[in-house]
């Protein structure tokens, strides 16, 4: 058997985690990207992985890139790098379902590209792709990758804090269906490093006074359809009144779902160009196929989409109402 045949044989039987770890060990320059408009899991998994690699392999250069994340600097912050740094780099994209959502288009300029994600794999990009839609979060997968390294990659208190923030954020404080027994074991493993978990929980639960006032507006003005789909339209005028932009609306997304009769809901957030960003959520009916109809996608119970103007709002709400009625979609328990 030739050397190449032995190499191919070994690679065939390697797990995807082992292949990713092998590439992390191989490259001296590693650049990690995440999705646009990041949430705690995007920041937590990106910067948590960067911290783990940086601390485990001190001789490597490791960067976390992307636009400024409003309100999440307490988890970690991005770094600025020059284009030339990509020439010999391993690029890892975390928590990003499809290429249009990758923050910073330079992710294609590296020598190798790896995708690590927990969204449905509708866009299977990357030379290596590890996608587990059943995972609670990409932060959970980063923890699993660290465990699979058998000591090559070390989990510090600093990194564990970031990953915990990502898991708590994406599970809605362990409330959503993707929370599994494994998720709870991972959270426990992270907490054992000794960071202040209660402080993270408080940070994710706190809202600014402006968001509190907007929450009152949402409760007062939300609409519920015949079959218990709910929605609220937030125009730029409304957001200016509350001194908030699009990023400031993240804290009100769960509110409509707190109404006991509501099955699924959407927050319509107007952008400066007149288009609307749609934050779509559900308790049971599947809503990501509806999101795809409007140029979006995501998880079965948590997705996003865009519409060009308010002329499409009624059409979308009618379809959401049909999903709530059971005409479209399916129950997760089936």
Q: What's the CATH superfamily of the largest domain, by name?
A: inorganic pyrophosphatase (n-terminal core)
Helix content: 25-40%
Overall CATH class of the largest domain: Alpha Beta
User: From the coordinates shown, what is the CATH architecture of the largest domain?
Assistant: Alpha-Beta Complex
- Overall shape: it is globular
**Tally the helices: what do you get?**
11
Report strand %. Answer: 15-25%
CATH topology descriptor of the largest domain: inorganic pyrophosphatase (n-terminal core)
Name the quaternary structure. Answer: single chain
The ordered H/E elements are HHEHEEEEHHHHHEEHEEHEEH
Could you please describe the fold and organization of this structure?
InterPro entries: DDH_dom, DHH_sf, DHHA1_dom, Oligoribo/pAp-PDE_c-di-AMP_PDE. Residues 252-324 form the DHHA1 domain. This is Phosphoesterase, DHH family protein. By secondary structure, the protein is an alpha/beta fold. It folds into two domains: 3-204, inorganic pyrophosphatase (n-terminal core); 209-325, Diaminopimelate Epimerase, Chain A, domain 1. It is 37% helix and 16% strand. The strands form two sheets. The chain has a six-stranded mixed sheet. It has a five-stranded parallel sheet with strand order 2-1-3-4-5, with helices on one face. A hairpin with a 3-residue loop joins strand 10 (297-298) and strand 11. Residues 329-334 have low confidence and may be disordered.
